[in-house]
Every structure is written in C-alpha cells, then in structure tokens.
Amino acid sequence: MSQHLVIVESPAKARTIEKFLGPDFKVLASFGHVRALPSKQGSVDVEHDFEPKYAVLPESKKHLDAIKKEMKGINSLLLATDPDREGEAISWHLLAALGIDKKKNPFDIKRVVFHEITKDAIRHAVQNPRDILIDLVDAQQARSILDYLVGFTLSPFLWKKIRYGLSAGRVQSVALRLICEREKEIQAFQEREYWTIGAKLETVGKKKQPVTASLVEAAGQKLGKFDIPDGESAQKIKEHLEKARYQVEKVTRSERKRQPSPPFTTSTLQQEAARKLGFSAKKTMSVAQKLYEGIDVGEGSVGLITYMRTDSVALSNLALEDARNLIVSKYGKEYALEKPRVFKNKSKNAQEAHEAVRPTYLAKTPADVKKYLSSDQYKLYELIWKRTVACQMAEALLDQTSVDISAGEGYRFRAAGTVIRFPGFMKLYIEGVDDEDEEKEGLLPPLNEGDALNLLELLSEQHFTQPPPRYTEATLVKTLEEFGIGRPSTYASIMNTLTERKYARLDKKRFFPEDVGMVVSDLLTKHFTRYVDYHFTASLEEDLDMVSRGEKKWRPLLREFWGPFTDLLKQKEGEVSKSELTTEATDETCPECTKPLVVKLGKFGKFFACSGYPECRYIRPLDKEAGEPVEPVVSDEKCDKCGSAMLVKDGRFGKYLACSAYPACKNIQPLVKPKGTGITCIECKEGELIEKKSRFGKLFYSCNRYPQCKFALWDLPVEQPCPKCGYPILVKKVYKREGEFLKCPKEGCDYKSNSDIVERKKVRAG
Q: Is 307 assigned a catalytic role?
C-alpha cells in the first residue's frame, strides 16, 4: 500500500506524475468536477442566505469509490488539482464528497500546486504543500451561484416571452450583445465614396529606379480622406498634375525600434491561434490541455507546456536563463539581451497563475518533438515556443524614410519606405493582426533633396468606406478581455454555447447573429440594461477578484446583486408581452384572405404569416439579408405524386424540393438526386440501393423505396456473393493499416478477403 495518495483532475496527468514520484505515491484522477449545483430549480436556497445544495455528479461516484479504497492506511492525502480558482474549489469539493473531516482524520491533508508537469516542478510542489485557500473557493462558489441564479431565473422568463428552450447567461448574454450590436452597425452603415491619386515616378540618370508616391496635398491644402469625393474631381487634379514638374522636396530619415509581444496568456494564445492557425478557442484549449498533461517524447510522458489557464505574462528565472542560452547558441550574441525583458500585466487582477504559457523545456525545439506530436499539437507547440523565445530576443531596428515630392505649386506627393536594418526578434516571430493588412516593408532608391523625377503614370482609384467587420473568435475574445468581461478560460465555452443555442453562427470564421439571437439580445438590452451592460459585468468580475483576495465576502456580494435583479424581473413579467417580441406588423396583406401580414419569429428564423391564423395558414419565407419576402424558385422537376411543379425551399438541413400544391400534396424530396449503385435491394427485391447522408454527414446506402423498405448498409455494397455463406452481396471496407478489402455484411459470417491486406504487408516488409 502506498504511503501517500495524490489526487489530480486528469488520468493522463495522473500517469505522468506517478512516474515522477516513485513507489511511495499513488496518483488517482477525479476526472474533473465531482460536485456541482444540480440543473434544477431550488439548488440554491435563497431564503437561507444563498446556501448552495451541491450534489455529487453521477459519473463521479465510481471515481470517488476508487479514491476511498486507496485512502485506507495512507499517511497523507495530497490534493493536486489545477492551480486556479476552479482547481482550488475542486479540491474543496473532493473533501466534502469523500466525507473527510480534517480535524478527525488520521492522515494529513494538504494542497499542492504546480504550473508545469516536469519532474522538478512536481517534486518541489510535493515538498512545499499548503492548506486549501478558502478565499479562492469562495470566489468560485460565488461565480457558480451567480451564474446559476441568472440562468435559472432569466431563462424561464425567455421561455414565456419568446419560446421554450432558450437560455440566458451572465457573460454569454453580454457576448451576444456585442455580436448583435456589431450587426446593427453594419445594417445602419451607409457607404461613402472617395478617391485617391498616386504617381508612378522614376529617378533621372543612367540608372532609372522606380518610386511610387501618394498625393497628400492639393491646391495648397492638406488632403483629408473625403477631399476628393468623386471621379470628376480626381480627373481635374490629374489634368493639372500631368503638366507638373516633379522634384524631391524633403527627405526624412529616422530610426524606429520595435519590441516583441509578451509571452502568451490564455486570451492571447486563443487570439493568435485563431489568426495564425485557424483554430477555434475550444480547439486551442483542447490541444493545449494535451500538451500540458504530457506527451511521450522518447523519454517517457512529460508536460511540454506550462498551465494554459493564466492571466500572467511573467516568466520564471529558469525559463529566462534557458531562453538566453538558446538564443545565443542558435542565433548569436547580438540577438540576446543583457538583462531579461520583463512585461507588465495589463490586468491588475492577473493572479490566477504565476507564469505565462510557455514550453517547459525550451531546449526541446519544435523540430525535436515534431515526430511525437499530431499535426495540431505540433502547430500549437511551435507557436508557443516561438513566442516565448522571441519575447527575450533583441528589439528590431527599422530605418524609416519619408520623401516629400513637389508637383508644381501647392501639390505634394509622399513616398515612404521601411528597411529592416537589424531583424532582432522578427527573425523568429511577428504577431498576427486582426482585420488589417500585415505591415509592409518597402525599399526606396537613394534620393536627395532637389533630385528631379520623371512622371511615368498617374493613378486615380475609387474607394468606398467599409462597415465595421463582424467579430471573429479572436476579435471577440480580445474585446471581452479589454472590457474585463468573464475569465479567458471560459471564453471557449461561451462561444460554443452561442452557436449551439443557434443564437449566432460562424460563417467564414465570422459571427453572424441569428434572428432568435437578435430578439433575445434586444429583449435583454432594453429591459435588463444594467445586467448586460459591459461595465457592470466587468465590475462584477472585479468584485469576484476581491473575494478571491479576501477583501470582500461572497454572501453580501450575492445579496447586493439578487435583490434589485429579482425586483426588476417581477416588474418585467407584467410589462413585456410575447407578441411584442415575436410579431412585427407589415404594410402587406395576405394574398389568400386579405388580412394583414405579420413577420413572426419561428424555430428556424423569421417568416411572413397571416394575422388571421389559424383560420388562414398562409406563410412565406423572409430574405434574411434584405428583410424582404422571398419568391419561391420553381424547379424543372415535377411532383411524382400529383404532377405539379416542385419548388426549391430552404430547410433545417439545407435546400430541398417541395410540391407547389401544398397543403393538398405534401410531397418533398432531396434537391440533388441520390447517387445510385445499380444494385437491386436484396431485401425487397424491387428497389435500388442508393447513396445517402446521415444527419451527421456520414455516407450510408439504403433502399430507395424507404420507408416501405428499411434495408440499409454503412459500407459500399459490391454485387458479388459471399464465397463462404452465399449472401448476395459483399461490402467494401477501407482501413489505414489494413488497406482495402471486401467483407460479408451478414451477421455471424466472418468472411473477409485478405488479398489486399497480404499485398500491403509485403510492400511494408519490402
């Protein structure tokens, strides 16, 4: 029996840590949370000062039983859950779920914290245990209870006023508001025309070199963005400039220094992985979790990065020393710093972990570990490694040159060029940007004041102002963090909830609000303004941080929030009507009964409907982009039941054909006819086996007489009888290792053609 029992959250982490600690330690996993507030009314007793009624999660019972079994005869229990508030709370919940009373227990109970899964870090943590910090637990309790109270009071309100199944969240609703307000800005945007004029010039002399410049002054006035409003104005200026004499008026040279970005926090890692790798926030955190928990890189499993939920940009002295040694050996002394570069945290509350996200061993370069990692793991590790090393490299030195060129009296062009004199950190890494072009470095020929230039061509270009861009995951994360809304570790789940609830959709990596999302956001913004206010939500986060530092108590904080919130909710119960939110009047009349048409909110968005429902059931789609009714598209197909024309319609799973004689004929069929196999169905002997897609996009093959015949196969049928049992068909199977082969689909028959398998093994052996 082991003398010491260590509890972590993840089984992968448990296996890695147990190897580091030796035979006296047994490491088990809690598999995450073990207790939570049940998802039902009454889980928080508001009448008794917000007393939470936690329950052990059903899936955690077997893990708790395994821990209890190992606790017999141990000397100490070490709680080694994650090094943040949530991890602190999980350790506290573990003791409660295990029924442990610290005063009566025969063994020591301690909390150990580490930020990287390396041998030295784990052993150091075990040698320096501490008690559970109850202030951190209280801050996490307060957050959970707040989120529960908002969700379980505001969500039922949405069910009554809009439709069943909707949800509202304390931070989720604010993120939705950001997306919806940006959409309204785009809809209200009115483009404005403007023109720019450029000149292609060249130097005079034997060696003619090109110079490109932009017009910055006309008729003695500095040009603003809209000072050339149309093509006619641009043409007049061009006519004047075609006759002008071009001469270098002024040359300004300056040195600019560029500093590297700080090492990654949770938020900046999510943003940069979205920009450079195209990863969603959820994917970034999932891949980072695996890198943190441990990967076998030829010397046993080891954590490759430090804890990935952190607000800190600090690096340990050991990491700084390793970075300097690596930079000197790999790039040279001129790229290293005399003293380490120290970055300041933007947030005063950055205290969740002590270090930024960095590689645990900088000596393990991406090239060294590539063969042990999946493609996604390698990409993310390389990004973290480069950012960490670059932040301790020398600054870049840029030579910037600006040239003013006169073009007759009162007209001036300007050319600019940037030359990298010393790349410094830019040799390794440059931070990505959002919604704008990467910085361009150009090169100008040697120019001196008084030099004449020849005009080659004048270029006038028409432009139109653009609306603000829709949020990407990266820009939404950045905005939430700038406002101080929520915690970076929760951003991935927040964005996932918005898309799963159909409040918004991601299209070409941009967030588009759905109709129901706009209605929910409008309701909350209009009637619960304070609770979806950016600054109120941020100040609530500051209050939670004060609880975590012991500067504020959590129950008074909940009382301050709950009283005004419930009073407002009761008031709005009587003020807000469902029709006000889900029905809009129009100027149109119903073509069938002449009653007014209204725009209604349905399960799949807005549509036109007759106000005379249910006597009149006329409905018509609404063009979401223009807010106009959509005329049905008539296809060339005829209904195979009644002979009427088939209409192309939009449904939940895409476009489909529907009979125009509806409701008399309710025939529908796929827009694209299924691909046939030419094989007669072996069950009904009448239909043909055709290719279809399941609701999750997986191919399968079924009889085209469905639902009369329900025969189906998951694999491609081959018209060839089974040599073993005589079944009329075989199916084709394809595996990476085994290759392609035929198999009998009949239950109980194990026939499998192995000619391809044998051939592949021969090739691999050869």
A: yes
